[in-house]
Amino acid sequence: MARFDDNPLTVVAAAAPEEAGRVARLVLGPVLALGAAERDRLLDTVETWFAAGGSAEAAGRLLYCHPNTVRYRLRKVEALTGRSLSAPQAVAELGLAVRAIRLEATEK
């Protein structure tokens, strides 16, 4: 039996891991194709931005970088994925995709 946090996105990703992985590859394909360091930096930034309630300032504090660096990385994710972080559906898709990738990594 596995225990997941209370985040609904994690629950959804865990309930259908194969489908969640497919969605993650669809949404984050260009990000996942980057080198490991750049890919992890962008995924960490998106995940931290979510945890910070969408605040670049708070995410910057958590990541020990300037808020403009957070904004730059988020714009890069937007450019690579074709999804705007100001569009609610795109934010939900990115949230699910990042959760699925993280969940997949913990299962390996």
Summarize the SSE layout with pairings.
Layout: H1 8-15, H2 17-32, H3 36-51, H4 56-63, H5 67-81, H6 88-107
Structure description:
With 108 residues, this protein is mostly helical. Helix content is 77%, strand content 0%. The chain contains 6 helices and no strands. The protein has helices spanning 8-15, 17-32, 36-51, 56-63, 67-81, 88-107. The longest helix is centred in the last third of the chain and has 20 residues, at 88-107. The relative contact order is 0.19. The model has no long low-confidence stretch (mean pLDDT 88).
Brief account:
By secondary structure, the chain is an all-alpha fold.
What labels describe this entry?
108 residues, mainly alpha
User: Number of DSSP helices?
Assistant: 6
Determine the strand fraction and express it as a percent band: under 5%
Would you identify the regions where 5 or more consecutive residues have pLDDT less than 50? Answer: none
Q: Please state the CA-atom Rg, rounded to the nearest Å.
A: 13 Å
**Number of E-type strands:** 0
Provide the structure class: mainly alpha
The overall pLDDT, averaged over residues, is 88
